[in-house]
Each structure stands twice: as structure tokens, then as C-alpha cells.
Amino acid sequence: MSAIFMSNPTQLEAKLEEWLKHSPDRIRVEYETAYSGHKVYAISLSDFAVPDEKKRKLYVAQPHAHEPATTAGMIDVIEQLVAGYDLAGRPTLLDVGKVLAGMVVTFNPIGNPGGVERSPYPYWDGTEVPNERFWCIMFGEDPDAPGQRWNRVDQFDTKELQAPDPIGIAYEQLDAYTYVEPNRTQLSSYSKLFRRMDAEYRYDYWLDLHQTEFVNSATQCQILLPTVGLQTDEIRIQCEAWANHISEVWREAGFVVRPPAPLGYTGTQAEYFRRNWGDIHRRMCKMTVEVKNNSACTPPERQMEAEALAVVATIRRICGEV
Predict the structure, then answer these.
(1) Parallel, antiparallel, or unpaired for β 178-180 and 155-157?
(2) In this structure, is the dihedral angle defined by the CA atoms of residues 13, 15, 21 and 22, taken in order, positive or negative?
(3) Entry pTM
(4) CA–CA distance, 154 with 269 (Å, rounded to integer)
């Protein structure tokens, strides 16, 4: 698996060095430096000889350290756009010349590299860690309720409350005391990097890659649409068609797919998204990929395949190939 399932910062940087040697004129790299010292990368691919105003712009990213197949899938797609083959050596379905002439595709393959470095496993397959323990690794174990995960919050200060020890890998450390969940606050490296890149390219689409456990369900994949009421009717219709297309690609590849549905968060969790990304949802097509994590029914190579398929299907759809 280690030869093709690449999910940590060291593996990403080794591949980035290869890609830059192979196609230096077609790759631009920017980054935010996290408190941990890690670089949070934005890797943009395009034929930059073609004016950007003539292109469609796609942003692909992942914020969570406990969802490693998102990283592995993105690295696989970047390899396809650079070399013409996936990491297993199979020819890409993408018309790479057409894609790069007609698009700017920006990838943030690891939104929280400090969290990834704290992860005890490179992937989650359900054989080592039951979900209850996995959730404690994600968000930390509740100091007052051993065996239960801690409350999920957008940010916290360890001077002001009794935080888990160790801190859950989902959180990015911002300074000696402050931690944040990257996609729930504008303070994270993940959010700052997107805002900076969006100011440069003004993206038309954002594919947000995630994983979840789909507990007590055979479901392996699902597209989550934005919270109801955040989008204009025009953007909502576009997103629904995009979501249905990816879902069909997954089904054709043999995955058990749950139909697309709006993000189900309510209360405080929903407010995080409205506050941080409401303006983006009203302007562009943005939606969430969910692929089953920590389950023997979806081994790591299939997790990675599902994530990569969602990205490739999106690129082909934007380029009019399907």
C-alpha cells in the first residue's frame, strides 16, 4: 500500500519535488506555514501560457488529518495530470492537454499536516481501532468520561479549559495554547490558504474531500450538498447535477452509494459553516465528498479510488468530456 497510498507530508513533498522536475512550467506552488512548521500547500496545475481569464477554476482540498484517503486520492490525480498515468501505472482517463489548457486546478492535499504527523496510522481500515476509539483519536478523549470523545468545537484555548491529553488529531495548533478545527474557522492555515488562492484565481468550483464512518450502513460514498438556503437556485441546480454525476461514476465502479443530500448539521455545527463559508456557497458551486473510513468493507485502496474518481469525474465534467 505504501507505494501508492500516500497520505503524509513527507510523501507529498517527495512527490512535489518529482512533479516540479517533470513539469515545472505547468505547476505553481504556494503555501501557508503552520505553527507546527509544516507547509500547507496549494498546488496549481494549468497550461499557464493560456490566459487564466479563459479558464474554469477548480479548487480541491481536505481539512482533516483523520481522513487520509483524501490526500492519497489527490496525489493520485495530480500524478495523472503530470505523468498521464495514475500511481498504479494505469493510463489516465483525462485528456491532460485539454484539461490544462481549459482549467486551473488547485489542490490542497493536506490541510492539517501537523495533525497528520500526530496520527498513529497512515490509514484506517477497521482492523486495528474500533470506531469509538477512532473518534477519541480524532477529537480527543473526554477527560471527564473515559472512552468517550470530547466535545467538537471550532476552537479552544488550553489555558481556559481542561482539554484532552493528547489533543485530537483533527485540530490544528495555532500557538502555544490555541487549537482549531480547520474547516470551522477562518483562523486555520486551511482557510487562510483558500482565501489567498481564491483572491488570485476566483474559483468557480470547490470539491471538499472528506471521509466518514457511515456507521451501521453499507454506504461507502455520498455527496453532501450545502446546507439548505445557502445557495441561489441556479447554483443549487448546478450542484445537484454535479453530485448526481459523481454518484453515478461511483456506482459504475462498484461502490454502494447513498443519494446526494444537504449537509445534515444543525445548531452550532451548522452555524460554523454558515458563518465561515456562506459567502462562498452563494458565489460558487461547492460540495462535499464523503467516503467510508475505518471499515473492512472499504479497504484503503478503495477509499483512495473513490476520492480520486470524484476528482477525475469533476474535471472531465467541467471540460465537457462527459
Answers:
(1) antiparallel
(2) negative
(3) 0.96
(4) 9
Sign of CA dihedral 204, 209, 213, 218: positive
Residue 66 within a domain: yes
For the chain, the maximum distance between any two Cα atoms, rounded to a whole number of angstroms, is 58
Cell numbers representing residue 291 in the block: 467516503
CATH code of residue 97: 3.40.630.10
Closest CA to 62 of 180, 221, 209: 209
Residue 3: predicted pLDDT: 79
Whether 124 contacts 65, CB under 8 Å: no
Nearest alpha-carbon partner for 70 in 116, 38, 114: 116
Pick out the chain residues at pLDDT < 50.
Answer: none
Of residues 307, 245, 235, 259, the one with CA closest to residue 69: 307
Cell of 288: 462535499
Give the three cell numbers for residue 281.
456557497
For Cα atoms 265, 271, 272, give the angle at the middle one, nearest 5 degrees: 95
| Count of structural domains, the chain | 1
Task: Tell me the residue range of the domain where 189 lies.
Answer: 9-117+182-318
Specify if 246 maps to a domain. yes
Cα 146 from chain centroid? Answer: 30
Q: What share of the chain is helix, strand, coil (3-state, %, to 5)?
A: 40, 20, 40
d(CA 72, CA 115): 16
Answer yes or no: is 133 within a domain.
no
DSSP string across 126-137? SSS--HHHHHHH
268 in a structural domain: yes
